[in-house]
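protien #1 (seq + structre)
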Amino acid sequence: MVVLDPSSDAVTAPVRQRAETVVAVVLVLGAFGALAGALLRARDAAGVDLSWLMHVPVWPTDRMPDTAWDTPLRQGYPSPVQPVGPHAVDLWLDRPDGLTAALAGVSVWVSWLVVAALLLTLLPVARTLLRRQGFTLTAARQAAVSAGVVLVAWAVHATAPLLAARRALDAGYSGLPAEWFTPQARPVWWPLLVVALLLVLAGTLAAATRAVARAAER
């Protein structure tokens, strides 16, 4: 027969509390650090004199002449129309406004926002694990929230370059007629796999929590 020492919980409880505090501080500081990184990156993208350093995704229309591929730029740069694949063309911009630059450079700062949001959503899950509470609906909800965060970030990453391209064409930042081009969507699909996996995890945790609760009632 195994005799449990009731004093063991009294000894380990302060250790778990300190570990919980340390993990919480690390996650919160990491989240704020990532948020600060995102703001700094967005500010840098919007505030620097971006002469031919930003580009937007476009596709040529029937109105664009073949000579546009050889249109010279100032300062000795090549044509602002640059093919980057069999079905993709980048249009380089000359000193766009801050909002257009921030939208065009979305991939530089949106990832930091995702990191910040995910670190904050992990905080309740880490507390649950450190408190040895087993399966809880909190962990399931946080997994679902994390899936929502990734989904929103994916939508922002997919739509921001389109908005930047539309603004750049309307403002004429490439020096070429706007009717020669149309904004082109280039979504990256692998984040949706992460969303699906997080939703599966949320459903699994919720089902396990209910199963444990039903077993405890018997």
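ok now protien #2
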Amino acid sequence: MTEELRGSTGKLLDKASILSDLIGANRLNENFEEGFRVVTLLDRIFNEFDSWKTTKLGSDSILKAFEFALASDDIEIARKVFEIANGWLKYNDSLGFDGFETAFKAAEKCSIKEYTTDYKNTDILSEEKN
């Protein structure tokens, strides 16, 4: 049973990695509707296993989603993607300065004031600006 579970998680990690890359590709190609679909698929896959929370895949996906929200020309898609990325961030907070700065800018763009305050006041942003 353990090998079966490990195999299942490995397949999910592979799918998640591909979807994470597709978020970035859709952002670069300005294909925001398809990118939103990819983010929601990745969110469903992340709900099926926990190991993404402690991996680089998790932090990379969160950053890509915040970058996607920031780049999107559709504010509703941007807000939905921001909310998904913010939900992921609750489980993996290893973004670093660039990630929190991107999250802050995306929150500003989406006019989500409670998060602009949260991200602006993070220790990492405060240290960099001083």
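Residues 2-129 form a domain with the Serine Threonine Protein Phosphatase 5, Tetratricopeptide repeat fold (CATH 1.25.40).
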